[in-house]
Amino acid sequence: MKICMIGSGYVGLVSGACFSDLGNTVTCVDNNKEIIDKLNKGIIPIYEPGLQELVERNLKNKRLFFSKDISNSIKKSDVLFICVGTPTKNNKANLKYVYNVVKSIKFNLNKYKIIVTKSTVPVTTGDKIEKILNSKKNQNKFDVISNPEFLREGEAIRDFQYPDRVVIGTDSKKANQIMKNLYLPIIKKGSRYINTSRRSAELIKYASNAFLATKITFINEIANLCEKSNIDVQDVATGMGLDDRIGSRFLRPGPAYGGSCFPKDTRALVSTGQIFKTNLSVVKSVINSNERRNKLLLNRIESIMKNKMKNKSITFLGVTFKSGTDDMRESPSLKMIPSLLKRGAIINYYEPTGQKKQFKSKNIIFYENVKDACQNADLIIIHTEWNEFKQLNFKKITKKRNFKVFDMRNLYTPKDMKKNKISYFGIGR
Ligand SMILES: NC(=O)c1ccc[n+]([C@@H]2O[C@H](COP(=O)([O-])OP(=O)(O)OC[C@H]3O[C@@H](n4cnc5c(N)ncnc54)[C@H](O)[C@@H]3O)[C@@H](O)[C@H]2O)c1
């Protein structure tokens, strides 16, 4: 099948490379010239484990192409996946990037094509896209369907190749059959294939993300209670998670949830609720609780430091919103670090994806490794759960005698730390 991925970011590039690996001819396009130039030189613009090899293999086999020519790429393809960003603006999904793509599609419908929204778009977006594309000239030349993407950054290739489910939202038998054939190698490996209405597919994505955000926020609040009642939240999470109806995943307390999906998708879902005059009070309360969490953790840092922040050296291990990715979008560190700087702290950080992040202050220093980042630390904050942070010999990597560790991911146990005479603070314990 000839496929065009429009938008070559985390979703478009990974799913495009994976579709090409299944034997399809895939063109990934992007209107950001720099991204396409890099990809054509074999440079992967994002950090995603395994992506380099996957792209190289399919480039070599001439099944994967990168192009800036959106019109031509649309014309020669049978299935067009819209994979552009849908950030929030005034708490609603901003669909300007999606509609710009739809405009390009409208003028290049030279034969029947399936137009797929893989971007996360609010309920009724498919209806609106169909309306824009409809014209006498375009009659019977397209189906607009929803195929939400559930991959997680850091596990994106595995998630794409072995998804729990493939959701296809369309009433068109023709489009459904083509999509089922496209996903057949994945379905054959055991993934469930669900054909549903387009609006249902759109809502499945938002409802899933809002539910996961709720689970994280719930355990974070239980962790707050544990901190005050001398209970270890890890015990509570284990005890809860063993109930099959609950499950242990996403019951790990930590910083506020961040990233490019949960914050924006929960906000956009509330806004969809408002359009349909439905009060999504649970989701609203999750958003509020998550926003409060940043402040709560800052207060905790202040109390750990006994309110003495001026000229204290604080080291962040990991600054992205989670491990396995270089994505900084809505990372809790973006709120915490500027607040700590304002209170006079000096921030050092190490980020395993190797990138220097765009923090604007002379009091924030990037280091190439854990040891250098920690050597002068008064406080070490474990912000993300990379494997390389899991077995640190804090006394060896830190020169200061009275340093403290705030483990926001509970990678260590209070018992071990006590044994090693390290002043240790976890979450919910
Ligand atoms: N990142 C994730 O983990 C993830 C997972 C599931 C779903 N999603 C959803 O997928 C969508 C894309 O997310 P992402 O993280 O890949 O975004 P991204 O920002 O990494 O990539 C979007 C790309 O689209 C390009 N683009 C914008 N307008 C364009 C146009 N008119 N023509 C061609 N290219 C254009 C941008 O230059 C950018 O490279 C979003 O709706 C997101 O919610 C993301």
Description:
This protein is α/β, with parallel strands linked by helices and 429 residues long. It folds into three domains: 2-196, NAD(P)-binding Rossmann-like Domain (Rossmann fold); 205-288, N-(1-d-carboxylethyl)-l-norvaline Dehydrogenase, domain 2 (Orthogonal Bundle), CATH 1.10.1040; 294-425, Rossmann fold (3-Layer(aba) Sandwich). It is built from 16 helices and 16 strands. Strand 11, helix 13 (333-342) and strand 12 (346-350) form a beta-alpha-beta unit. Helix 1 (10-21) crosses helix 3 (51-60) and helix 12 (281-304) packs parallel to helix 13 (333-342). 44% of the residues are buried. Bound molecules: nicotinamide-adenine-dinucleotide. Nicotinamide-adenine-dinucleotide binds next to helix 1 and helix 5.
The total count of strands amounts to 16
Helix content: 40-55%
CATH topology of the largest domain: Rossmann fold
Report Rg: 23 Å
CATH architecture heading of the largest domain: 3-Layer(aba) Sandwich
The separation of the N and C termini measures 53 Å
CATH class of the largest domain: Alpha Beta
Strand order of the largest sheet: 3-2-1-4-7-8
The biggest beta sheet reads: 6 strands, parallel
Bound molecules: nicotinamide-adenine-dinucleotide
Query: What is the CATH superfamily of the largest domain?
Result: NAD(P)-binding Rossmann-like Domain
Low-confidence stretches: none
Which structural category fits the helices and strands? alpha/beta
Q: Describe the oligomeric state of these chains in a short phrase.
A: single chain
Strand coverage percent: 15-25%
Would you tell me the overall average pLDDT?
96
Q: What is the helix tally?
A: 16
